[in-house]
Design goal:
Residues 461-511 form the Soluble ligand binding domain. The protein is α+β, with helices and mostly antiparallel strands and 558 residues long. It contains 11 helices and 30 strands.
Length: 558
């Protein structure tokens, strides 16, 4: 298939304005108004503009995960905390006063106050923790305290003294700022709920201030309550003000997690470890896909969870936790001369054509005819083939017999050479290149998870490497031949196999240079000469050198 028409060039589009005369649209306007009156206020007529382009999900690409997630803790504000409670049901907080009467074997009639430690003083009976208890629970707690002290025949009466409601201002980034009534023991969460909750687009769930008399009395973070149920107890007074601050840096988390949401962070605290702690990944999650912006440019990353935990995150990042098992989608990366997004989630059945139309290429720099794919499964097979060839080479070398001491010495020398060569060869990492184009045509092949589509940049040079004196890039010239480029790199070394030179095209194709024209962007690989009196060893080592050169575009020395 042709490459150029399938790519989306990163250039602005211009749409000509549509001009309609007044005489043409006035009758239609009056007709619409008449219909609106007949249908009544409950019905409206909407004119939807057609979309400009299909989404990737409709033709192979999956929707961007985490784009429309609600803020974490937004589900707190559903009206349940703002409901009025009876005086008996309210929980006690420091500062509350209680009317306490005891009669029987022990007598008392007075007012006790809950101190800052959340306790009331029962005189000779000692202190009794009551903060967080309702009135009925306080009565039972006092009876238990008396019983533990050996006082059984006692009647207990407890009643809150501060039953008058307080009026508290709620402002900042809330849905319905205003003044709300409640009990002094009501939590900050209750007053926020009465104000319609925090604005999910602009409000902070982690920076909530309590003002009293114009001074800040304290601040609240709702995340500990949402995660662990921890909420500071504070007694509100008439005229207090609750101010919800502006939303801080936020990161969306989705995928293989228990808490899919948009998480807010304080400045400098956004890391992969903190996000994972709150998002709570499932046991199946093994990798994280990060999409965001860094320094005004698109940012994409895919890495294992152990590496993700140390990664700093930024405002607006979208993180998808993924399981390293087959699913409905695959992730494909694009490298090279592109602009915009470089990672695309696709349906598992997607082909190369499905993603090409969403790649914004840099038309001035991209060499579309040089497109190729780096595939992990191919790299694994290339590595296995090299390893198998090395194993056979070592076996034939180490098991060879010698007819004389001189031949044995030669065998030992060759064995040492092969061992050193095998050590170098085992350290190479194949790229797994899949050649998909030839003659300006690109095959519409099926994609695999982890594929990297490479669109090389246009080049005016020829790279000469391997067994040359000075490997370097030389400006291409149509009149130059192979010997000219080798001469420009200082000539052959004394180890060069001058009859075994490979030419690698930008699209990954490999040729012998004897019958191939050298073009701009090509790479010349001069392979080393294998010095051995054993023809089979020469053949085997030459084959391995060729495999490594094709798999890595690198020549290793002997």
């Amino acid at each position: 298939m042709d490459t150029a028409p399938l790519f989306r060039h990163a250039a602005p589009r211009h749409v000509a304005p549509c001009r309609v005369g007044a005489a043409a649209w006035l009758p239609a306007l009056f007709l619409l108004l008449a219909l609106a009156v007949l249908l009544g206020p409950a019905r409206t007529i909407a004119l939807a503009a057609p979309s400009e382009a299909k989404s990737p999900a409709s033709s192979g690409a999956a929707p961007v995960p985490g784009a429309d997630l609600p803020p974490f803790a937004a589900n707190l504000f559903q009206g349940n905390f703002g409901q009025a409670r009876s005086a008996e049901a309210r929980e006690l907080t420091p500062g509350d006063r209680l009317v306490l009467r005891l009669w029987g074997d022990r007598n008392f009639d007075g007012v006790v106050t809950v101190n800052d430690a959340g306790e009331i003083d029962l005189q000779d009976l000692g202190a009794l923790p009551v903060a967080g208890l309702a009135q009925a629970q306080v009565t039972e707690a006092i009876r238990s305290k008396l019983s533990a002290s050996g006082v059984e025949n006692v009647q207990v009466y407890v009643s809150p003294l501060d039953g008058r409601p307080v009026s508290v201002f709620v402002t900042g980034f809330v849905m319905k700022p205003g003044r709300y009534n409640g009990a002094p023991s009501d939590s900050v969460l209750a007053f926020l709920d009465r104000a319609g909750g925090i604005d999910p687009r602009r409000g902070s769930y982690r920076t909530i201030r309590l003002l009293r008399g114009g001074a800040e009395l304290g601040s609240f973070d709702l995340y500990p309550f949402a995660l662990k149920g921890a909420l500071p107890l504070v007694r509100l007074l008439d005229g207090d003000t609750i101010v919800v601050g502006e939303k801080g840096p936020a990161v969306s988390a989705s995928g293989e997690i228990r808490n899919a949401a948009r998480f807010e962070f304080r400045k400098g605290e956004a890391t992969g470890a903190r996000l994972a702690e709150m998002a709570d990944p499932l046991a199946t999650a093994s990798h994280a896909s990060i999409v965001g912006t860094r320094n005004g440019a698109p940012f994409n990353l895919y890495l294992p969870l152990r590496e993700f935990r140390t990664l700093p995150l930024a405002d607006g990042d979208r993180v998808e936790f993924l399981a390293d098992t087959p699913g409905d989608t695959i992730m494909v990366e694009v490298q090279g001369a592109i602009r915009g997004a470089s990672r695309f989630p696709l349906k598992r059945t997607a082909r190369l054509r499905d993603v090409q139309q969403y790649i914004a290429v840099d038309a001035d720099r991209a060499d579309l005819s040089g497109l190729y794919i780096k595939r992990r499964s191919v790299a694994v097979r290339q590595k296995r083939a090299i390893e198998d060839a090395l194993r056979r080479l070592e076996e034939s070398s180490f098991t060879a017999t010698s007819a004389s001491p001189e031949e044995a010495q030669i065998r030992n020398h060759e064995a040492e050479m092969i061992a050193k060569f095998a050590e170098k060869a085992r350290n190479v990492t194949p790229e797994g290149i899949v050649v998909v184009g030839s003659g300006g045509k690109v095959a519409d092949i099926a994609l695999e998870d982890g594929d990297v589509i490479v669109i090389p940049e246009k080049s005016d040079v020829v790279l000469v490497t391997g067994e040359v004196v000075m490997p370097q890039a030389i400006v291409w010239n149509g009149d130059r031949r192979l010997k000219d480029y080798v001469r420009g790199a200082g000539g052959y070394t004394n180890r060069a196999d001058t009859g075994n030179i490979l030419l690698v095209r930008p699209n990954g194709e490999v040729f012998r240079t004897s019958d191939t024209t050298i073009a701009a962007g090509d790479q010349l690989l001069v392979l080393p000469r294998v010095d051995s009196k054993n023809l089979q060893t020469v053949k085997d080592m030459s084959q391995i050198l060729y495999q490594i050169a094709v798999a890595t575009k690198v020549v290793i020395g002997l």
